[in-house]
Amino acid sequence: MDSQPVGLSRKTVLLLAIATGIIVANLNYIQPIEGLIAHHFAISKAHVGVIATLSQLGYALGLLLIVPLGDIFDRYHLIQFMMGLSILSLLAAFWSPNVLVFTVAAGLIGVTSVAAQIIIPYVAYLSPGIHQGRVLGTVLSGLLTGVLLSRSFSGILGSLMSWQLVYLLAAIFSLVLLGILHRYMPRDPRGHQHRSYGSVIGSLPHLFISQRYLQSAALNGLCLFGVSNVLWSTLAFYLAHQYHWGSSIAGVLGLLGVTGVLFAPIIGQLVDKYSPRLTIGLSWLFSALAFVIFWLVGQVLVGLIVGIVLLDLGTQFSQVSNQAIVQSLDREASSRNNSIFMFSYFLGGSLGTFCSTWAWSHYGWHGVCLVAVGFLIIALLGHWIMKEPKQLHRLDVDE
Questions:
Q1: Is the pLDDT of residue 202 over 50?
Q2: DSSP-assigned letters across all residues of 98-126
Q3: So where does this one cross the membrane (predicted)?
Q4: 3-class secondary-structure state, position 391
Q5: Could you tell me what percentage of the chain is helix, strand and coil, using 3-state DSSP and rounding each to the nearest 5?
């Protein structure tokens, strides 16, 4: 039975926004310290790029196979269970005596970090529809803050002391958060749902095929997050090559994405009031302008700074707009819809990481920018062919 939204206090929304940030940060710690990891294990930069890709593929796998469980089980307990497994994975990465153990730990960190994507449809489920965009914008601003601070934290700490301590401290942060969520996170009003895991997973293809707005959001998310990872997977290499700077600078530059954090609630309000098609178009424009700047004047620090601000702004416009579309679909399938969208989203991130690190190894910065152009062309074609709704409303899966 479909219960009505119960609403969330501002304090609760803020807590869950912080939670998504801390949880998703675990996935991104590796990016600024790839060079340090490569040196520690005596492997190539391309090899550590594969490890980073496996971590994101693990996240994508968790999105596909674990996040749909939110439509069956009590999300209050499911989120805490996944966080417990995440803490164990972080401790394994800290302890790793060789590259094989670290690779397995990195993959498990990716899988278990999907707890953040169980929180997002949970928040949407508990929020009245007329305020859903604003609430989602706030929670997603927390998620982006976690991504940004993870880059800075990891890069700066890695330059000052052993990179392994990044994962030990992440485990401690997660343990503290787990205790707070256990005390203050809202209980799931649905309780346990009487559905089999097989039927829920088996319904994913039908949900994707039957919902054209979900298809559009998935394609756009794949391309725009792929573009974002094209930069962040290679920025540390570019800074070392162009300026002879270490991982700490890559971490500091990550703080420039605070623009996207500040704009996230505003983006949510724009989606509620106007058109997600408009805000998705803006996301493509900002991302395209960013890589024009990277390609033409990326060798100048000011060019890098302006481009990073535009890119993170474009990424946030895409994320908030697409999530608002996805969460406006069938409430009883909210976790599965989010699973499909975020699987596509992080599949794009994995492709962006893999293709850009390969392009850097063979063609340098120009090759990296060409990879971004490919993603942007596909996103633009999809934007016109697979049109998003002009206005949001409650949509049925059969629409």
A1: yes
A2: SHHHHHHHHHHHHHHTTHHHHHHHHHHHH
A3: 12-30, 50-69, 76-95, 101-123, 135-153, 165-184, 219-240, 252-271, 283-311, 365-385
A4: coil
A5: 80, 0, 20
CA-to-CA distance for 287 and 86, rounded, in angstroms?
32
Q: Taking CA 355 as the corner, what is the angle to CA 320 and CA 291, rounded to the nearest 5 degrees? A: 55
Question: Where does residue 205 rank: exposed (0-12), middle (13-18), buried (19+ CB within 10 A)?
Answer: exposed
Q: Convert the pLDDT of each residue in 291-305 to its tens digit.
A: 999 989 888 888 889
Is residue 213 within 8 Å of residue 325, measured between CB atoms? yes
CA–CA distance, 299 with 256 (Å, rounded to integer): 17
> pTM for this structure?
0.76
On whether the CB atoms of residues 68 and 207 are closer than 8 A, the answer is no
Q: Which fold has domain 10-185+200-385?
A: Growth Hormone; Chain: A; (1.20.1250)
Name, of 24-38, 74-88, 122-136, the range with top average pLDDT. 74-88
* Rounded Cα gap, residues 356 and 375, in angstroms: 11
Find, among 79, 13, 8, the residue nearest to 264 by Cα: 13
Give pLDDT tens digits for 351-395: 998 899 899 988 888 999 999 999 999 999 888 877 666 565 554
d(CA 290, CA 127): 34
Residues 6+ apart with CB under 8 A from 311: 227, 228, 231, 286, 287, 290, 291
- Cα–Cα distances (Å) from 77 to 43, 122, 210, in that order, read 40, 12, 30
Angle at 349 between CA 348 and CA 350, to 5 degrees: 90
Kindly state the helix (H) or strand (E) to which residue 5 belongs, with its residue range.
none
CA gap 357, 94 in Å, rounded? 24
Give Cα 295 to chain centroid, integer Å.
25
Q: What is the mean pLDDT of residues 191-217?
A: 86
**DSSP alpha helices (H): ranges in 274-300?**
276-297
Q: For the chain, what are the domain ranges?
A: 10-185+200-385
Integer Cα distance of 286 and 87 in angstroms: 36
CB 340 within 8 A of CB 334: no
Query: CB atoms < 10 A from the CB of 65, how many?
Result: 16
Specify whether the CB–CB gap between 149 and 26 falls below 8 A.
no
